[in-house]
Amino acid sequence: MGSKNKLKRFRENETFSNVVQPTREEVFNNALGFKGNWKEKFFKNTNSLVLELGCGKGEYSVNLAKRYPEKNFLGIDIKGARFWRGAKTALAENLDNVGFLRTQIELIDNLFDENEVDEIWITFPDPQIKYKRTKHRLTNEEFLDKYKRVLKPDGFVHLKTDSEFMHGYTLGLLHGLDVTIEYAHHDVYGTDTAPKEVTAIQTFYENQYLETGKKITYVRFTFGSK
Predict the structure, then answer these.
(1) CATH number, domain at 43?
(2) How many domains does the chain have?
(3) Which of 1, 78, 184, 219 has most Cβ atoms within 10 angstroms of its Cβ?
(4) 128-142 core/surface letters (b: 16 or more CB in 10 A; e: else)
């Protein structure tokens, strides 16, 4: 994507009512007043709150919002030029139960109150295989601690990925922690037991993976009582 297109999308994002782009200072000071109040202040309702972390173009957030109009969905990514597509689509289709937040995922415990979130989706994250350190891997222990903090006790984390490495790494980590793995499969399109929203919604890149014969994996887990 050219720099001109990126700048155009950044400018458009600033005009979108479904996009929030706080500075780091605003995040740490809760200057926007959303922490603990996302449902009431941003979505104007009391419906459950679902996050998609590393939402990319926002395809999953938008399609989940269509599938579950009784829930609120918030796609989070640091790359606003990417989720511009999802934000624009949501506005064009009058989807008022989906929004987008431009920020770093490691800041989520500064943006959401304890027990404020009902579910978290992590879709096709970078497995960070080339890096010896795992600090940016979205299912490392540090991130899991943050998810546990903001999730309700019975809230689910969903991990959908084309990376067998990421799937195995996450399962191995979860087995060593006090979590409940509700469902896990290394090939969701090769079984009839996968939850419908896992196979019914496909991103652009997921379709490409499937065309090349790549298997798509899925894990759903909960931290249970705190």
Answers:
(1) 3.40.50.150
(2) 1
(3) 219
(4) beeeeebeebbbbee
Active site annotation includes 96: no
Looking at residue 45, its pLDDT comes to: 97
Residues in contact with 175: Cβ distance below 8 Å, sequence separation at least 6, in sequence order: 181
What value does the mean pLDDT take over residues 180-187? 96
Q: Is 179 left (phi over 0), alpha (psi -120 to 50) or beta?
A: beta
Interstrand relation of 117-123 and 49-53 (parallel, antiparallel or unpaired): parallel
Nearest Cα to Cα of residue 150 among 226, 69, 59, 201: 226
SS3 77: strand
- Identify the weakest region by mean pLDDT among 58-62, 163-167, 183-187, 203-207: 203-207
Q: Which domain holds residue 84?
A: 3-222
What's the residue count for the chain? 226
Encoded tokens for 76 = 């989070």
E strands in the chain = 19-20, 49-53, 72-77, 98-102, 117-123, 151-161, 180-185, 217-222
Catalytic residue among 126, 145, 162, 178: 126
pLDDT in tens, 75-134: 999 999 999 999 999 999 999 999 999 999 999 999 999 999 999 999 999 998 876 667
Instruction: Determine the distance from the C-alpha atom of residue 16 to the mean position of all C-alpha atoms in its chain, rounded to a whole number.
Output: 20
CB 177 within 8 A of CB 92: no
Q: Where are the alpha helices (DSSP H) in 157-203?
A: 164-175, 196-200
